[in-house]
Amino acid sequence: MSLTAEIVAIGDELIAGATVDTNSGWIARALEKLAIRNVRTQVVGDDEDETARAIVEAAERADVVLVIGGLGPTEDDRARHAVARAVGAELVHSDEAFDQVRAWYARAGREMPDTNRRQALLPQGAAILRNARGTAPGFALEFPTARGGRLIASLPGPPGEMSAMFESEVLPRLAERARRAGGGTAMHRFQLLGLSESVFAERVGDWMARDANPLIGSTVSQGVLTATLRARGADEAEARAALDARVAEFRPRFAEWTFREMERDESPRIEDALGPLLIERGLAFTAAESCTAGLIAARLARVPGISAVLGASFVTYSDDAKRRLVGVRPETLAAHGAVSAETAAEMAAGAAAAADARVSVAVSGIAGPGGGTAEKPVGTVAFATSVDGAVEAEVRRFPPTARDAIRDASANVALVLLWRRLTS
Amino acid sequence: MSLTAEIVAIGDELIAGATVDTNSGWIARALEKLAIRNVRTQVVGDDEDETARAIVEAAERADVVLVIGGLGPTEDDRARHAVARAVGAELVHSDEAFDQVRAWYARAGREMPDTNRRQALLPQGAAILRNARGTAPGFALEFPTARGGRLIASLPGPPGEMSAMFESEVLPRLAERARRAGGGTAMHRFQLLGLSESVFAERVGDWMARDANPLIGSTVSQGVLTATLRARGADEAEARAALDARVAEFRPRFAEWTFREMERDESPRIEDALGPLLIERGLAFTAAESCTAGLIAARLARVPGISAVLGASFVTYSDDAKRRLVGVRPETLAAHGAVSAETAAEMAAGAAAAADARVSVAVSGIAGPGGGTAEKPVGTVAFATSVDGAVEAEVRRFPPTARDAIRDASANVALVLLWRRLTS
Fold this sequence. Notes:
Chain A is of the alpha/beta class and about 425 residues long. Chain A has helices at about 10-15, 25-30, 50-60, 80-85, 95-110, 160-180, 195-205, 235-255, 270-280, 295-300, 320-325, 330-335, 340-355, 405-424; strands spanning about 5-10, 35-45, 65-70, 90-95, 120-125, 125-130, 140-145, 150-155, 185-195, 215-220, 225-235, 260-265, 285-290, 310-315, 360-365, 380-385, 390-395. Chain A has a 6-stranded mixed β-sheet with strand order 2-1-3-8-7-6, sandwiched between helices. A 5-stranded mixed β-sheet of chain A has the order 14-13-15-16-17, sandwiched between helices. In chain A, helix 3 packs across helix 4 (about 80-85).
C-alpha cells in the first residue's frame, strides 16, 4: 500500500491571504515522484495551539506529516513549540543546531542577532535537517500513533530554503519509507488546447468515474485543459499496465486538441518544455506583447540558460509603440485595429526582424475591465507566431473573467501556439 | 466576539500541486474587512469522503465555512455531494439553478452539453448563489451544530467566478452575521525595505509577544518586510484605539526603512499603489529589464487603465540588446559589466529616452543558478530609477535562493525604489 502525506503550512501571512502558499504544491509534486500521495493540506496561523492540533490530526490520518514554516527567529515563529507539544516531547537547546545557525552568519559575513539563538531549540529526540540556504535548521522525528509510526519533518517557510532542505535531507528518508511500504502508482498527463471542460467530460464518458482505474481528473487553467490519468496497482508494474492501456485509448480520441503529453516528473508549465527546446535547436526567440506586457518573456526567462536564445523582447502597449518598436504599419492599425490577426501578424514579424530572432510570438488583446466592444468584447485576444519568417495569426476569445486571468491565459496560449508549431 | 471562518478548497490539481490555490487568500482578505478571521484553510482532493469530513471538522470549529471548487460539470466535481452529506441533507434537482445554467449558455451563444445538468443539483434547503461569470451556481445553507448555527457557502473554483459570487452573494450575508456577532478588530501594515527579519525582531522587542495587543506579525517576501499590526477590542473603536497607540510608537522607530503604510483593505502589492500614482500624476513609465525580463512591465500592467502611462517597455537580456534598444555604451559594459550600477543607470536613462517616458526603472542581475562570480555572486542585482532625467542607481545583494525568487524580488524592489522616490 502506498504512503500518504499531509502538509501543515504555518503563517499568519498565509492564513490572512497576504502571501500565497506555493510550498505545499511544490512538496506535493515532489512526493508524487515517490508515489506518496498528499491527501490534505492544512494552513494555520502563527498560533501554537492551532498548529499543534493540526499536526495531531494530520498524524492520525497520514503516514508522513510535513510542517512548513514557523522556524524563523522571531517570537511569532512557533513550529518548534507546536511539534514538541504535538508529539509530547520537551523542547531542548541543541549545540549542533546552534553551530549551524552561527556558521550561516559567519558565511554571510554578518553578526548573529541574539534572537537567532531560538532557532537552536528542537524537540527532544529530533534529528537535525541541515539548511543550506538560510539560518533555520529543520528537524525530523518519529511519532508513534495508535495507527502506526509517523514521520514528522519540520521545514522553514522561505521557498528556496524549504526546497533545498527537502531534496537533500527529507527525500532520502521518505524514499526509504516508500520503498518499504510498497504499492505503486503511475501517472500520465495530456494537455489540450481549444476544448472546454464540459465537452471534454462528455467525450471522456465513464472513464472519469470516481472508482475507475486509472482515475482521470481534469482542470482548466490559463486557457489550457490538463487531463491527468493516475493508475494504482499492487506494484508499479501493475499500475503502469493499467495506465498504458487507457493512455492508448485516450490518445486517438483527443489527438485533435492535444499539444503535449507528460510523464510524472515533468513540469506542467509550457515554458519548462519550450525553453529547453529553443535552446536545443538554437532558435533565437523574441516577443511583441501588448496586453501581456512582458509576461511571455518573463515566463520564458524562468528557464535557466535562456540567455542562449533570448536577447531582446518588446512590450508594445500603445499603438505608437507597435509602430515604432516592431514596425506595425499605420494602415494596418487603422483598417483592423490593434486587436486583430493582421496587427498581431505584423507585430510578430516586426519583432523577429528587430531582435534578429528566428521565432517570435505576438499578443494583442482586450484584458478589461474596460475597452470591450460588441464586436471585440473583453477576452478577445489576437495571437501570432513567426517561425523562420512564416507567420500564422488567429483571434481567440477567452471568457470575460478577471484582467489577470485573461493576461495569464494569453501568455500561456501564445507559448503553447509556438510549441505546437515547433513540435507538430 | 468576532466570527471565525474556515476555508475548504477542493481539487486534485490543488492537492497534487499542479495549480496554486489563490482563492483562499483572496477570501481571507475579503473576510478581514468584516473582522471575520480565517483560522484554518484545508485543501483536499476531488474526493467526496475527504471533503465531507473536512467540512464537518471545519463546522465544528468555525462559524462560517467556505467551500471552494468542485462545482464543475464533470463526474469528479463532488462539492455538492460532499456538502449534502456533511449536513445530512438530500441532493435535489433545482429548476431555478438549471435555468441559470441554461441562461449562461444562451448568453454565451453556445449549446449546453448534457453534463451541465449536474450543476443544477443542490442540497435540500440550500439557497442558490448566482454565478455572473460562469455556469456553476453556488449555494449557501445554515447548518446547526452543537456549538451553534453555522453558515456554509459553496462557491466555484475559477477565481473570477468565485470572487464575483463572493462579493455579490456571500458578502451581504456575512456582513449581517458579523454585525450581530459584535467584537472589533483593526489592522495597520508597514512595509520596509532593507531590514532583515532578525534585526526587525530585535528592534520590535516584546511588542511581538504572542499575547500582545495589537499583535505584530512579520513576513519577508520579494525583498520586502511586511509588518502587520492587528488589534482586538470589544468593538471596533476599542480595537482602533489600541492600534493607533502602537502605530504611533512603531512609526518613528522604523521610519528609516518604511516605504509604505496600509490600512486594512489595501492591496499589499506595490504595483497597486504605484500604478494609480503614475496615472494620477500623468507620469509616462517604461523599464529596461535584464534578469526580470518583463516581470516589471507585466506587474504594472496588472493595473486597469495603465495604458495612460505605459506605452513601450524593453526586455534587454543580452549585452547587444542593452546597446541597441536602450543605448548602453559599449565602454560602460566593458568597464563595469552588465551587472553594475553604471550599466543599470544607462539602461534607465536610455529606456526613458527611447520610450519618451518621464520615469523609468532598470534591472540587471544574476538570478542563477549559473553566472555567479566571487565578486558578483548569484543574487547580485543592479537597480536604477530615472525621474525626469535624474538617475539613481545602486547594487543590492539578495540571498542566493532560487532563480524565480531572485527575479520576483528584483521586480518588486525596482518598483519599490521608484515608489520611494515618488513619495518621499
